[in-house]
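pasting for the record
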Amino acid sequence: VLQSLPLVSLHVTTEPGGTPVVYAIGDPPTAAALDDYGFWVDRLGEEDEPQRTQLHLLRDDRQMETGFLVPSGNSSSLFSGSRAARRVLASTREGLVVALPPGEPPERYPFSGARHGRSLMLIPSAGLLEAAAVGLDSARTAGAILDADPLSTEEINVLQKHIDEKAIYRDVVRYSETLPIKGDRRLQSRHIFHDDNADATRALVADLESRGRGLVVRTRTFTPYLKEIANVEARIPGSEPVEVIIVSAHLDSTAEQGGTYDKELDPAPGADDDASGIAGVLAAAGALAELAEIRPPRREIRFVLFNSEEEGMAGSARYAEEERQSSTKIVAVFHMDMIGQNAAGEPDWEVHAGCSCAPGIRDQTLALAQQIATLVPRVSDRLPLPQVYSTALGLDEDPGEQRSDHYNFLLRNYPACYICEDFYPGPSAHSPQEERNEHYHRPSDVAQFVNPGYAADIARVVAAAAWVMATR
């Protein structure tokens, strides 16, 4: 392969232990070709690049799936030109590290074969160099809570009253453009560059404010891509406000795989991705707000809807970094992203608790998944136990670990898991075949293809797990 490329120079050496290392210098088309073969390629960049650009990790799923020395990546088609080539700083095992102007989203570079969570905004964070989680030394781990008192009949009844098929369907419909969201105003899209994103944000604030007297609601603005948008947060204060539990989803949508797509004008209903998660968070907020009037929680509970997940998971990155800088003791993040697709067969579902980036909290993250599993027979007995993905259970990797907003919390050493429909293969050779949503990231992702009873069962278990952790 190397002999076939127009390299300026080539040097081979070995690391201690005999591992060969190849140093090569070439022009931009050569660098892009090496990307596609699976080599790790560093670009030197320019001196003032950090002041003029935002860094992103773009995962080239097609190249990663075909493997080393197979030229099936996207770099040659997107980054061979002289202007685009300057954007790429390095190719790594995880993907391409690119430096984009502040107003240029990663969506401008549509990778063929891209899967869920294809990009990640990289923001400055000295905390990423820390070996231990902030403040978790004094926290009770999720594992200790597994032996807590079971849910009472009254608690289960409140969860079932608020988190049911009708509630989930109502909110999936409202946030995926089928019915008016306010007056005769209909949401067409929740994409961050569409005007309806701001309308969706305001509607979510109003919805959360209506879900319970004990909820304290606010927006947290940030400015990715030269556009101000906001995350939405609601809090139930704890009686001992030291530790925090988060129940979350992402509020934006996209239809980038639906052919020619204008993100500022075209519909992107995103019913499964992620109006199903939005509906789960809203229903959970109503249930736990009522439970808090009966039994105030010890830990603070937050319900957070992250913006810009589809554009580099920027909202969760900003939120998690601000909490780390404030030394917030987040002891659990339960993140729901696509919980509504179940068209055939058993209602299989997944909990992703892989934690390769923070070994010190790997067991705590697995314990969140175990907490969820223990509550299934109590509150959602129509569901089978979840398929749990965890490196603590012997998996080489969790395919969902880096693919949703929970990852930005794992990066900062907070226990976090990602709950979804049966989207990924595995976790074992004997697992049921995954059920991919054919409407994923398309304008056809509408409410009629969401199974609201299935989504309600998943959201109810997540809410129950958060409640147990907040009160026991």
